[in-house]
Design brief:
The protein has 17 helices and 24 strands. The chain is an alpha/beta fold. The protein is elongated.
């Protein structure tokens, strides 16, 4: 039960009216009524109730919409806590804003709150600014000047007119004195999405950092947050990833950077660079995240929250790094990875294929073992730690993939930032897990349309598809080649002979243009073509790519295996894939295609066409 629900049950407030015209009435504040459908009002109502039950202030001493004497007629304090029963002596002024306001709006709210609290006819000791999960508490008593906004920051509002706590959050919800305090808590999906968006906006700062650089810094800070939650500590000990009373931004920054460097030394493959965030910006990000327990937040909640955020983040210029969830799920369900398979995405982008392979294995673990048991955990965690591999050429996006894996409870160890088309021997020296003929399954959406020039990338001549024969049959190096074509050969090199399988998203031109016949010949000679699923034009339009594409499902032939002209190929062309060109949800035929493919694998007929 929420604090507000308790307040309503106890008769301190009530909500009435139709769904479209809900009003909340604060009974203990002179029956004052407001529109409850206003997002700002919901924030106020929840915090008002929190003041009663969590902070233990008498309900009759908490007033809403308090007029500030001799200021503008419209100037009212959202909430005022008084120190006397007659409500004459203000103790704390609270300014409430809806969740998700910009940093500029939050700063403006701070100034408004401080202005009200320090006004000569309404002198208060504390100011609280609340915008959903983001809070700022300031000591505005005579100990600090009217312009101070940093040295007077408190970890939290004192309880029941007491002294300020050093920290707001302690493990187990008790402090070192045994007093009841707050612990960090799991959150729901929308709350997490909002927090991630706020953090990114704070870091991006309207152009202070590029969007991917901002997300890279966010990844570092979430990494610190999660590692701090996982750090062993006794009940009653404070967490470190939080704001401390009277601690300047510079000191908080030192504390957060020390945590980061400690973890970076333990796992240097995750992040190699230091945190590059201004001290005050870092403090704001901490304020967005400090109340959340990311480790205990449900995995599905975290997965969907990060995916929805990145859905928007990777549109347009960064669409190449993100494959839509329905396409990924479909490819994974078609290939059905097994617990002991080594799975690779050589162009992993934000890590979508790897994450869904992990989700598939987690679901499989639930079929064999009871959730929460050691066997259940070991089943999928062993797969994540030892069998998932990813390569991403863009270092910033590789960090996003690693962070995505960490948020999903690991699997980041073998995600590397590297050019997947470069020498496999060089790759092996970077991470010994990358070798030829190793992988059981490759799931990938390689970049379309980029050109590899021999002058810039000498490794091009090492590819069979990087060479051609002239009219006299003489083999010559091609001066350039499309990246997606080279990825086909690289995938063949990585797969286990005879058994290794792959699901590859390719532009239709590779499969249909007469000029690409040599590529199709290579595919049919080196692979058994299991299935071709033609995707509709809208498949990647939502992410800034309008190229018509298909997914081919293949098996690498054995060393002496000869292609059989009678090999059956499953073919399908769905029109509905779960979303349209604008990103809106639609019906989907993809699950039906998976079922048809399963039937096809048992069928002896040479072709099976799944109607759209």
């Amino acid at each position: 039960m929420s604090y507000l629900e308790r307040a309503i049950n106890d008769g301190y407030a009530y909500i009435a009216g139709t769904e479209a015209k809900k009003k909340i009435t604060y009974v203990t504040s002179d029956n004052h009524s407001e529109n409850y459908n206003d997002p700002e009002e919901k924030v106020r109502a929840e915090f008002w109730a929190e003041l009663i039950y969590k902070y233990e202030y008498p309900s009759t001493r908490i007033k809403v919409e308090v007029v500030i004497p001799d200021r503008l007629p419209s100037d009212r304090a959202d909430i005022v806590i008084f120190s006397d029963d007659e409500c004459k002596r203000p103790y704390t002024v609270v300014e409430c804003k809806k969740d998700g306001v910009t940093d500029a709006e939050f700063t403006q709210a701070i100034e408004q709150g401080v202005g009200n609290a320090t006004w000569v006819k309404l002198r208060a000791e504390y100011v609280v600014i609340v915008a959903g999960g983001t809070r700022r508490v300031l000591d505005v008593s005579d100990k600090f000047g009217a312009l101070e906004r940093e040295k007077n920051i408190l970890a939290d509002l004192p309880k029941a007119y007491g002294k300020p706590q050093e920290f707001r959050f302690y493990k187990g919800g008790v402090n070192e004195k045994g007093e009841t305090v707050s612990d960090i808590m799991p959150v729901e999906r929308e709350e997490l999405i909002t927090a991630i968006k706020k953090c990114h906006q704070t870091l991006w700062g309207g152009g202070r950092l590029s969007p991917p650089a901002a997300f890279g810094e966010l990844c570092k800070l979430i990494f610190v947050k999660i590692s701090d939650e996982q750090k062993p500590r006794k009940k009653g000990e404070p967490y470190q990833f939080q704001i401390k009373t009277h601690e300047p931004s510079s000191k908080l920054s030192e504390r957060i950077n020390a945590l980061y460097n400690e973890q970076k030394a333990k796992d240097p493959e995750v992040f190699t660079e230091s945190i590059k965030v201004d001290d005050r910006v870092l403090r704001t990000v901490v304020s967005h995240l400090e109340a959340m327990n990311l480790n205990k937040t449900d995995l599905d909640v975290k997965g969907v929250a990060f995916e929805q955020f990145m859905d928007g983040f990777f549109k347009g210029d960064f669409g190449q790094y993100f494959t839509p969830r329905p396409i990924i799920e479909f490819a994974v369900n078609m290939m059905k990875p097994q617990h002991d398979w080594d799975v690779l995405d050589p162009a992993c982008g934000s890590g979508g294929f790897l994450l869904h392979a992990l989700d598939y294995m987690r679901a499989q673990a639930g079929e064999y073992y009871e959730k929460g048991t050691v066997d259940y955990f070991n089943y999928w965690h062993d797969f994540a730690a030892r069998h998932l591999y990813g390569i991403e050429i863009n270092d910033e996006i590789a960090r996003v993939a690693k962070m995505n894996m960490i948020v999903h409870d690991d699997g980041h160890t073998n995600v590397i930032s590297f050019d997947a088309l470069d020498s496999i021997d060089k790759m092996h020296n970077h991470n010994r897990g990358f070798v030829k003929n190793k992988f059981d399954l490759i799931l990938t959406n390689p970049p379309f349309g980029s050109t590899i020039n021999k002058a810039e990338k000498p490794y091009l001549s090492g590819y069979e598809l990087g060479r051609n024969k002239d009219s006299k049959g003489k083999v010559k190096d091609r001066p350039r080649q499309s990246s997606e074509i080279l990825f086909v050969e690289r995938i063949w090199e990585f797969l286990k002979p005879g058994t290794g399988k792959a699901a590859i998203v390719l532009p239709d031109g590779v499969l249909t243009n007469s000029s690409s016949q040599y590529v199709r010949d290579f595919i049919l000679e080196r692979f058994q073509l299991l299935a071709v699923v033609s995707l509709p034009q809208c498949a990647f339009a939502h992410f800034g790519a309008g190229v018509k594409a298909s997914i081919i499902f293949v098996r690498k032939r054995g060393e002496n295996e000869i292609a059989d002209d009678n090999e059956a190929i499953f073919m399908a062309a769905p029109e509905l894939i779960g979303y349209d060109a604008t990103g809106r949800k639609t019906a989907s035929q993809l699950d039906e295609i998976v079922k048809k493919y399963e039937e096809f694998q048992k069928d002896a007929s040479p072709f099976f066409i799944c109607p759209p």
